[in-house]
Design brief:
single chain, 113 residues, mainly alpha, 60% helix
């Protein structure tokens, strides 16, 4: 099969495997989200040591608000980051990304209260 100018025409490509996610994209993004979760979870407990506190100035003071607004979103960010670092397909990457976005939205909504 050739075109008018004589150059060969290649047949259309049929995608038989899912769209791949470049390993570097998932690894770098996942590492950044993982670091954000590791920092965001415990910072309310150790922040007062460095005069970085929001709410109270007691170190390692556990409350339900700190659990739901800091620890749970931090754990979800760590899980989302690990999922994204291991994602091999775009569907896996999107799922991991939505987990990370959801936990940051919960934390942002809690900070806006």
């Amino acid at each position: 099969m050739s075109t008018v100018t004589g150059t060969p025409r290649t047949p259309p490509v049929h995608r038989t495997e899912p769209l791949r996610l470049p390993r570097t994209t998932g690894a770098v993004s996942g590492l950044l989200i993982l670091l954000l979760g590791v920092w965001g979870g415990p910072i309310p407990f150790v922040g007062p040591y460095f005069h970085y506190a929001f709410g109270g100035f007691k170190t390692w003071h556990f409350t339900d608000q700190r659990l739901w607004l800091n620890i749970v979103p931090g754990v979800a960010a760590v899980i989302g980051g690990l999922m994204l670092m291991r994602a091999a397909t775009r569907v896996g990457g999107l799922t991991a990304g939505w987990v990370a976005v959801a936990d940051r939205a919960v934390q942002a909504a809690g900070l806006a209260r």
